[in-house]
Structures are given as C-alpha cells and as structure tokens.
Design the sequence.
C-alpha cells in the first residue's frame, strides 16, 4: 500500500496529448519516487476554469465542480482531493468553500446534482499537489530524494496567479510567495532573487482572445527572468507554462527581442533532480528545450 | 438629456444585487482604487473596476452592461487579494459579464466574450474541454479569411505542440469526454433553471417596491 | 551650609571596573571634589549596594551624595533616598558605552569619566534639599465650566471619585449641543445603528448627585489663585454673584457651529430645504422615527444629499482650514435616519475624503453602506433651489464628470469652532500696532489689555498677569499637546476637555472629559503636597528669587509659558508655586540671575561647567559642552549608549530641565573657561512643538540666536555655539552633531581662552 493516497482530479489539459500532458507525465514520475498514489476520479468533468462565465451562470459553474467533488466523495472517501492544474484547483476549492459556506446554495447545487444521481456533502479538503509536496512530504524529505542536484542552474520561480490568489499556499504571501524558490534550493539549483514578475499575470485564457495584450504581459515576465540572470523559468501552472513558453517567437517578432528561455514545471525539475530519465521528466514535452536539464538527465 | 433615469439612485444597484454573482458586495466598495491599480490589463479597461462600481451606484445601467470592461478580466485575482474591503471583485466582474450576456447587452464583437461563450459550449458538448476544437473555432471566429491568417500565424505553435505530444489531431474528430454526459447536462440544466427562477422572483420583488 | 555632609559612591559593575581606573576616579573625587567619604562597590544598585548607602545616610548623617555609575535615568528605584541631595555621574551610558574599548581610546575615556566626577561633585556642592513651599492648600473640589456632554461627564467622574464639583453652565439647561441631537453615532458593538444620546439621563444624574452643585444661567466672573487654592467668582443671570474655592478647574466650554450663511454657493438661507447637520437633527427629532419631511412643503423626503466638508478643510477665505472630525460619521448617522425609516429613500453622501475616526468608526461606515447609503467621491460646487426641488451640482471625482442632480433636501456638513474665550496672545500684537510710533515704549505687553479689541467673552476671567483665558495653539483651539499630554494646558491646574481643545465627537469628548478629570484630581492632590504637576510630576523644588538683585525687567513674568508669575504693584515678580511647572524658563530668562531652584540653579550647572578640566592648547584636546534637554535629548543619549554608538570623547554633557532653563551666562562662562564649542539640544518648537514645557525650546532658540554679539565681543567664531531641535528618535543624528562639532573645531582651531 502506498504511503500517501489522494483522490486525483487531472483536468482537461492534463489528458493524454493535451497541452499540459508533460505536466502529467512528470507528475506521475515524481509521485512514484515519493510513494504518492493518485487515484483518478473516474468520470470527472471540466471545471469551466475562469472563462466559462459567459455561458454559465454562477450555480451551473458551481455544479460542475460539485459534481467532481461528489464523485470523489463517493469513490475515494477519506482522501483529500488533489489537483495539479491551477484553474482546476481554484475552481474546485472555491466551489467546495462556497457551497459549504452558503446553505441555500448547497441545497440548490444538490437539487441539480440529483439529476445526475449524485450528492455533494462537502466533507473533503481540496488541495493543490504543491501543498501535498510542501505540507505532507516536506522539503526535507524531498531533499533526501535528490540524486542529481541542479547545480549551476539559475531558475526564476514564476508563481503566477491562480496557485497564489485568492487562496495561495498556506504560509505564503500574495505579493512574494517563496515556495518555488525554496524548492529550487532544495533541488540544488539557484533561485533568482527578487524576481519582480513572480506573481504577475500572463494573461491566462485571454492569450487566446487578446493575444497582443497578453503577450505584452508575458514579455515583461520573460524580461524580468532574463534580468535576474535566469537559465529557465519554473512554474506550477499549465496556463503559465504554456503562455511563457510557446509565444516567445511571436513576442520576439513583435518586440525585436531574442527570447529563448525554457519554461518548465516544478515536477519536471524535481523529476530530473530525482535522477529520473528525460522521458520520465517529460523533457521531450518542451517546445523550447531545457538543455541544462537534459544534460543532467543524461549524466 | 433624458430625465427618465434618475442619477445616483439605488435602482440599478438593486438590480445588480438581485442578478449578479456576488452583486450584494457592490455597495461595500469604498472607492480606494486599489483594484484598478492592480489589474494587469487595467489600462485596456474602458472603465476599471473602481469606476464600474461607481457607475452602478450612479445608476448607469446601459453604460455598465454594454461596457467591454469586464471582458478584459484575466482572472488573476489580484484585485481580490488586495481589496482592503475584501470584495470578491473578480467574481463580480464575471457576474456582470454574464448578466450583460444574458440581457443581450454585451458587446457583440468582443473576442473574449466570444471565446468565453465558445468555451462553455465546448465543455457542454462532452463535459470536458476539447482544446483543439476550441482553438480552431477561435481562429475562425472572425470568419474564414481571418481564420486562415491566424492559423498560419499559429502554425508553428501548433507544430510545436504536436511534436511534443501536447496536441492530438485526432481530438478534432471527437476525443475525450465524460461518460455520464447525460447526467451532467441534466444537472446543469436544472442549475440554470433554479438560478433563473430565483432571479425572476427577485426582480419581481424589486419592481413591486418601486 | 554647615550641616551639609558629602559622600561619593563609585560603582564597578556593568564593566565600569574593567574599563575605567576607579581608584583614580576616587582620587579625583577626594582631591578635587573634596568629598570626605568615598566608597567603591562591585554593583551599587544591588540591595547590598543600596544598603551600604542607606547605612551611611543613617549613621553618618550624609545629606549630599554623589553616585558615579549609570545614567540618572537608570536604576531610579534603587537610588531613591529620602531627604538627601543627590547628583549622578553618568559613567556607563555617558562614557564606557559610547567609547571604543581599545588601548588607544583609554586615555580620553578615562579623562571623560574624571570630568564627570568633577562635574557631579561641583553640582552637588551647590545643591540643597528641596522642601514644600508651605504655600499649598488642598481643596477637594473641582470647578467644571460648561454643562454639555463633556462637562457633565467630567462632573460625574469627579464626583464618583469623591470630589465636590461646582458646574457652571451659561444657558438655562444642561445638555449642550448633544441635547439637540436625535441620536448619536454608534458607540457600542456592533456599531451598526444610531444610538440614543442618553443626555437626559446624564443630566438627571448630574443634577441629583449630592456632590455636584449646578449653576445654570451663570458664568465665571473671576478666577484667581493657583492649583489647590483657586478662588472663583460666579456671576448669575439674576445679577448676583457667589464665590467658591476649588482645587482644580476643567474647562469644557465646547464649540459653536460654523455659520452656514457664509456658504452662499450652497444657497444656505435661500431655501428651508437646505440645512446644516443640526438642522437635520431637529427634523429627525420631529419625525421621531417616522419619515422625515422637508421643511418647505412637508413632503416626505425621497432623496437627500449630504455635502461633506462644507466650508471646511478649505483655504478659501472665511472657511475653516481644518477637519472637524465628526461630520463624516454624523452624515452616515443622519443618512441612516432616512434608511432606517424607509430603505427606499435615496441618500447620497458627497465627499472628497471620508474619515471615520474612533473605535468602531469603520464598522459604522460599513453598516451605512450595507443599508444602501450611496457614497460618492464628489466635489459639490453649488446648490440651487429649483421649483420645489433642489439642484445639486458636483463633480464626480471617480467618473471625472460634472453632474447635475436633484434632491428634496440638502444637508451641509459644516464644522465646529471652539469656545475658547479670549485669544490673549493676539492682544499684544494689536497693542503694539497702536503704539507704533511711540518709540519711548519698549514694553511689548500692555499691563491691562484693552477689551474693546476683543469682542469675544472670556470663559474663565483669570486674574492672571498674562490674560483672562488660556493660550491658544492654532485655529483658536486651546493649547494642549495633541498626543503627549492632551489635557494639559498652559495654565497649571486648569484642564481643557472636549471640542474646545480640538474638534471631536461625543465619544471622544466623553473620553476627554474622563482624562481631564483624572488630571484635575492629580493636580489638586499634587498641589496639596507642594509638588509639581506634569511633566515634573512630584517635584518639590520651586523657583526662589532674590528680590534685592531684581531689576524688575519682567522677563520672567513674560516668558513663563504657564502664566505662573504675577507682578506686584512695583512690577516685582510674584511667584505662584502651585502654577509653576518647574521648568526653569524664568531662571534661563533672568539677566541678573536672581532666580534659582534648591537643587537646580545657575550655580549647580555653572560650577559643573567650570569644574571640567580644560587641557591647554598644546594637548590638542578640545572640550565641547553639550546642554541636553532631559525630556527627549537625554533619553536619546542614553539610547545612543545602549546601542553602543560611539561619539567624540571631548564632549561633556549636562542635562537641563528644559532648554528654556538655559541661562546664557552658562554659555559665556563655558567659552570664557576655554571650551571650544557649545551645543544646545532641545525639543521641537513651533506649532508642532514637542517641548514638554511648550515654549522653553522656542525661547532658548531666540536667546541663543542673540549670542552672536557675545561671541563677537570675545572675538570667537559663531560656529562655536549651535542649537538643535532633537527628537527622542534621533539616535543616529545626535552623535553625528557631536562629531561634527569636533570637526568644526579642528577646522577653525581651538579656543584662545585656555588658561
């Protein structure tokens, strides 16, 4: 039996061959190393992220997450619900808290869920995998698993928005959360100090609808990482990762910049430091390849 | 100037309270402006949140609901984190956008409004978002010619995603989905129905008072 | 003098024994200080050390003792001996803690310590043991002037504490402004709704209390005497007078509302529907919880607009420049009158900055928002009657647009003006103007100010030499230190409370009343024992003056910040010990040096200055005198020591009661004795003063600005004397100033007066 077991909500982008598939792959590998068992909710649905509001009203959007919670309660009683995607975690945690806080809303949600033969009880904690790693596993234990320290790599910890606000990781500040920096340190790397775009917005889903405005935001985030002397950016969020990685060429074209900086998930960093293969760490999922990590992985 | 709408009266505020997600918080804004200063796309807002709150209180119904402002919310939650009064500003903005859409007053040609609507429709189909279909729809939402142009511009991104196995061309034909899509749809329909009934009742109460 | 018996005690604790040659210090005290009994101890402040000293006092009849250990501000509980004069040589904070512990520094550090021994011995020689003046009286009776909420609260608090109270109220009823209110701003948790004022009940309690005597329709016709023994004449409307002896006085004369007629832009007076906040209170009392109707036609108000800061916080001529503090909360409360009666009424509050002071103020604001009061950041420009309605023009500062809105009723939030009585400091100026051209007169103050220049009625009618009422600070409010000592005025034993002191609301006024009552009781009891009031609370020393030497120049009577000194018919000063705060400003002012305290005099400081060993020029060791105000500068210097911030070893520091007590003879003596520089450090002066004696620091600055003549006469550079305003937080700055003086001396050379 696994040391730590959780009910798991992967979310749309972590599905096979979806945009954050690399996060999924590296997550699986670090969980294996750390003896964490993630039990996927069998028939989860989309959380509607934070962009579904045009079509869906308040209650329908809450019902989406309530359904996932209800399924988790039924299938994995006693296990915290864990998500890796910032938006999934935020939407689910928010629904959980709001429904538990507002009895009328909870009754309404359950009236709707009855149509699907489900009931939301509100007896679970909704957590981000980062919380599991920091609070349940701990930096000390993570350090013990480091076989190939990320020596001589300078990394900008880009926390972004939704893993940071409005809930954030316990004990961290909204304006300057330091858990990624601590993690980088534990893995043997060097965090960029005073990375001043650490919690700035990358445009999120508006990268699709307002690409120019969002890319201007990403440009600042990349620039600050370069200013800090970063070799790469690390982030916990699928949207952040995608936005900071895949549009660099567009930004270069528009602003005459020469950005070419890898942006990786913390799970990829961990996987490499744990001595796992490039494939396990999903380094093949990088559009801008993380050469320094590849070099360590192939050692 | 029309005398029909009286300014600086609570009429529209009450409508917002009855219909908009977290709308009951609007009156609690103390006009410090921290939200406006904290918004990443703030400079692109026709009226930043502080102004939107004031406009609601100044009874500017049309101007608020037809504004493009709320549609520039990136959901970064900076405003919520910093609001000294702890107003759920992000939610109010989403709520206003939704209400504007429901009232048919949201600006028709706003990319985010279209995208947000398509996102919802996309997820409704199978219970999970199909990134490829959503993306393609998005490129073509402004017509075929625009779409081809955008597709070409995005071609490299697409290829990159494809190569790194972060995109599946097969998704275009179907792809992932919920098994109990029927149950999910029924639940969502029910939720919508509950919400609309409640809003109608609230409006009725409001009109009977004035 | 014959019965003075001296002893000195040298402490070796806290590293003093390791850093300094204590035997050598003892030798200095014996040979130069001429102290017959000298003892050393490893830890003088220990119970054993204290017992040693007390034993000598008891068995050897020691009357004067010098303790060479830490700062005089440290270990005051251990070194607390009765009926002895004591000087303290500060070797710890003043020497070893501010000097590097190096071999190279040793010589200068030891010299510093030896000088402090010399200075303390010299000071001690000239000290006497202070005793009460015998002038005091104890009358456990307090006069309260004003029967509003402040005065009534004061009266009740004093009575509850067991004191008799005489309350004088000008009008025919108790209650004051608060009696005109319908409700008061919420003052209790959850701070959500307006609450009853409780005024009627309070008045009933006051009137029925056995220890309180209420005089309605009465005023104070004369106040003379001093704390502990004030004599009051009360004039009654009937024409008669009565007299009363009291120990202390509380002035709670309140405020009058700003005259809204001056606000022509808001058409006050043009329509009965444009009112001020008191006007709305009247309407609300009429409505008594029902719908409020507008005065013009009795129509139920559907929309009311409040204009904040009407004629306030404005530099416009005729407006009040300050904030009255309560009006934002009051408007919220008044808007609640409408909302609580009928939530459908629209209530708009136009403000530029909202201020919700006090405990629960923000909660009350939130409650107002929750009830649907509309708050708009907007600058009102005009109100005009328009048919039956009112047109309000304002600029919405958030939406940045000009708005024309209608309302049934407009309420102007106007400010409050203090009832402080006569501005006594405005008089000399006008007298001077009158006397312009009269070159023979050098007299800046008229002996009896012409009343015609002052249309305001006096509140206290003080028979003090300085004028009939208490000095004011700014905007006509009674001078009291806002933060550090709020109720203290510049007339000892008389305390200001409520809006006469600064603008405030009911809750603040009641708190103020309680505070002032406590101070009044304290002053009365201190006066009974012949002890000083704040800030030298408990001090028994008081100024003595040698009449034979006095030239009747009147400087002491003019400069005393507290009006403690009257004049007799020959214009000799008449000291009133009870009114004296013991700051020594009179001593500093006296050109012929006839004023002194038993334990603080021209000699105690002057001889300490002269006792310093000034090395001859060839040694190249300058000497700097620092006269440090003991209220803020000296504590700051102690903290410099605690933080081990080093400064020049050439400085010699003498604490003074107030910079105002510094007599320029000390500076002249120092320069004549070969000191190379003199620094004076006192508290901040001016409108935002931090001077504990209000005017002392300011007067010292004026006096030292005139020292240039002396310097010129001595052919000395003006840089040698510097005066600074120091805050208690200036830990970094003080050593910097001292070191800069050393640099300056290096630059301009040593003093030629080294003999």
Sequence:
């Amino acid at each position: 039996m696994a040391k730590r077991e959780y009910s798991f909500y992967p979310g749309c982008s972590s599905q096979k061959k979806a945009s954050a598939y690399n996060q999924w792959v590296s997550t699986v590998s670090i969980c294996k190393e750390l003896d964490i068992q993630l039990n996927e909710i069998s028939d989860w649905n989309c959380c509607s992220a934070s962009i579904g509001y045009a079509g869906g009203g308040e209650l329908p959007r809450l019902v989406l997450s309530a359904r996932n919670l209800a399924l988790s309660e039924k299938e994995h009683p006693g296990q915290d619900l864990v998500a890796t995607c910032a938006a999934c975690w935020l939407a689910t945690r928010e629904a959980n808290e709001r429904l538990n806080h507002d009895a009328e809303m909870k009754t309404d949600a359950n009236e709707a869920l009855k149509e699907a033969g489900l009931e939301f009880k509100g007896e679970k904690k909704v957590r981000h995998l980062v919380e599991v790693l920091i609070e349940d596993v701990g930096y000390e234990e993570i350090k013990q698993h480091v076989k190939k320290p990320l020596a001589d790599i300078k990394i900008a910890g880009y926390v972004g928005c939704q893993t940071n606000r409005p809930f954030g990781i316990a004990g961290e500040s909204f304006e300057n959360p330091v858990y990624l920096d601590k993690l980088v340190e534990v893995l043997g790397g060097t965090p960029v100090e005073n990375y001043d775009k650490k919690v700035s917005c990358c445009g999120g889903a508006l990268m699709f609808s307002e690409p120019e405005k969002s890319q201007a935001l990403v440009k600042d985030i990349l620039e600050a990482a370069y200013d800090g002397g970063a070799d790469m950016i690390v982030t916990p969020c699928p949207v952040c990762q995608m936005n900071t990685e895949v549009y660099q060429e567009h930004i270069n074209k528009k602003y005459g910049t020469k950005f070419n900086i890898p942006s990786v998930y913390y799970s990829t960093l961990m996987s490499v430091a744990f001595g796992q293969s490039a494939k396990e760490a999903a380094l093949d999922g990088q559009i801008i390849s993380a050469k320094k990590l590849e070099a360590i992985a192939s050692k | 100037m029309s005398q029909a709408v009286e300014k600086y009266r609570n009429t529209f505020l009450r409508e917002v309270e009855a219909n908009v997600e977290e709308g009951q918080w609007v009156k609690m804004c103390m006009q410090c402006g921290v939200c406006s200063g904290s918004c990443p796309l703030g400079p692109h807002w026709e009226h930043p949140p502080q102004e939107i709150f004031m406009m609601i209180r100044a009874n500017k119904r049309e101007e608020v609901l037809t504004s493009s402002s709320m549609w520039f919310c990136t959901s970064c939650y900076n405003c919520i984190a910093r609001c000294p009064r702890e107003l759920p500003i992000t939610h109010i903005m989403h709520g206003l956008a939704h209400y504007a859409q429901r009232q048919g007053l949201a600006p028709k040609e706003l990319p985010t409004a279209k995208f947000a609507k398509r996102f919802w429709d996309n997820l409704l189909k199978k219970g999970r978002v199909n990134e490829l279909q959503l993306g393609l729809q998005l490129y073509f939402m402004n017509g075929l010619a625009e779409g081809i142009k955008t597709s070409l511009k995005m071609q490299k991104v697409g290829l990159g995603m494809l190569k790194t196995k972060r995109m599946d061309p097969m998704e275009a034909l179907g792809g992932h989905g919920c098994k109990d899509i029927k149950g999910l749809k029924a639940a969502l329909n029910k939720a919508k129905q509950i919400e609309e009934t409640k809003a109608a009742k609230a409006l009725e109460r409001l009109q009977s008072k004035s | 003098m014959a019965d003075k018996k001296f002893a000195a005690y040298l402490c070796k604790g806290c590293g003093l024994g390791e850093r300094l040659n204590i035997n050598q210090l003892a030798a200095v005290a014996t040979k130069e200080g001429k102290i017959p009994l000298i003892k050393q101890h490893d830890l003088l402040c220990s119970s054993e050390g204290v017992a040693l000293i007390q034993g000598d006092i008891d068995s050897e009849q020691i009357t004067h003792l010098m303790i060479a250990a830490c700062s005089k501000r440290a270990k005051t509980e251990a070194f607390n001996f009765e009926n002895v004069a004591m000087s303290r040589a500060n070797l710890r904070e003043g020497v070893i803690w501010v000097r590097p512990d190096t071999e190279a520094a040793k010589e200068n550090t030891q010299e510093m310590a030896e000088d402090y021994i010399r200075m303390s011995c010299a000071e001690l020689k000239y000290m006497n043991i202070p005793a009460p003046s015998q002038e005091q009286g104890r009358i456990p009776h307090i006069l309260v002037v004003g029967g509003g909420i402040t005065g009534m609260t004061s009266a009740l608090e004093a009575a509850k504490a067991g004191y008799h109270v005489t309350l004088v109220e000008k009008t025919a009823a108790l209650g004051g402004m608060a009696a005109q209110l319908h409700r008061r701003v919420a003052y209790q948790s959850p701070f959500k709704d307006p609450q009853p004022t409780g005024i009627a009940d309070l008045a009933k309690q006051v009137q029925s209390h056995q220890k309180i005597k209420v005089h309605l329709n009465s005023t104070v016709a004369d106040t003379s005497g001093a704390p502990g023994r004030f004599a009051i004449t009360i004039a009654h409307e009937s024409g008669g007078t009565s007299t009363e002896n009291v120990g202390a006085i509380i002035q709670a004369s309140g405020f009058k509302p700003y005259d809204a007629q001056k606000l022509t832009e808001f058409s006050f007076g043009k329509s009965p529907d444009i009112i001020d906040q008191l006007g709305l209170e009247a309407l609300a009392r009429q409505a008594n919880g029902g719908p409020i109707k507008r005065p013009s036609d009795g129509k139920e108000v559907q929309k009311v607009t409040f204009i904040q800061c009407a004629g306030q916080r404005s530099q416009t001529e005729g407006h009040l420049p300050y904030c009255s503090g309560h009006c934002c909360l009051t408007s919220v409360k008044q808007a609640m009158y409408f909302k609580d009666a009928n939530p459908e009424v629209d209530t708009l509050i136009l403000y530029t900055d909202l201020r919700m002071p006090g405990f629960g103020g923000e909660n009350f604001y939130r409650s107002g928002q929750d009830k649907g009061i509309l708050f708009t950041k907007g600058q009102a420009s005009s109100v005009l009657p328009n048919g039956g309605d009112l047109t309000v023009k304002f600029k919405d500062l958030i939406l940045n647009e000009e708005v024309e809105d209608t309302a049934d009723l407009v309420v102007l939030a106007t400010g409050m003006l203090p009832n402080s009585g006569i501005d006594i400091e405005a008089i000399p100026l006008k007298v001077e103007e009158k006397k312009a051209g009269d070159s023979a007169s050098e007299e800046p103050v008229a002996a009896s100010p012409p009343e015609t220049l002052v249309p305001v009625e006096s509140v206290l009618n003080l028979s003090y030499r300085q004028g009939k009422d208490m000095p004011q600070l700014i905007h006509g409010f009674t001078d009291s230190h806002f933060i550090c000592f709020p109720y203290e005025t510049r007339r000892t034993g008389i305390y200001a409370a409520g809006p006469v002191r600064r603008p405030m609301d009911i809750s603040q006024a009641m708190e103020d009343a309680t505070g002032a009552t406590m101070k009044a009781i304290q002053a009365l009891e201190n006066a009974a024992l012949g002890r000083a009031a704040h800030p030298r609370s408990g001090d028994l020393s008081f100024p003595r003056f040698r009449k034979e030497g006095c030239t009747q120049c009147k400087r002491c009577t003019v400069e005393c910040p507290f009006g403690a000194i009257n004049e007799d018919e020959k214009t000799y000063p008449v000291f009133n010990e009870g009114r004296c705060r013991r700051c020594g400003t009179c001593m500093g002012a006296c050109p012929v040096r006839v004023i002194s305290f038993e334990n603080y005099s021209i000699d105690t400081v002057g001889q300490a200055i002269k006792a310093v060993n000034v090395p001859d020029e060839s040694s190249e060791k300058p000497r700097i005198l620092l006269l440090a105000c003991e209220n803020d500068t000296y504590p700051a210097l102690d903290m410099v020591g605690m933080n081990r911030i080093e400064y020049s070893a050439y400085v010699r520091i003498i604490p003074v009661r107030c910079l105002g007590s510094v007599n320029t003879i000390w500076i002249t003596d120092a320069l004549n004795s070969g000191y190379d520089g003199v620094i004076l450090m006192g508290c901040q002066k001016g409108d935002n003063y931090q001077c504990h004696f209000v005017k002392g620091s300011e007067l010292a600055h004026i006096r030292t600005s005139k020292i240039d003549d002396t310097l010129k006469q001595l052919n000395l550079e003006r840089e040698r004397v510097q005066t600074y305003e120091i805050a208690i937080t200036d830990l970094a700055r003080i050593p910097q100033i001292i070191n800069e003086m050393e640099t300056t001396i290096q630059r301009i050379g040593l003093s030629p007066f080294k003999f």
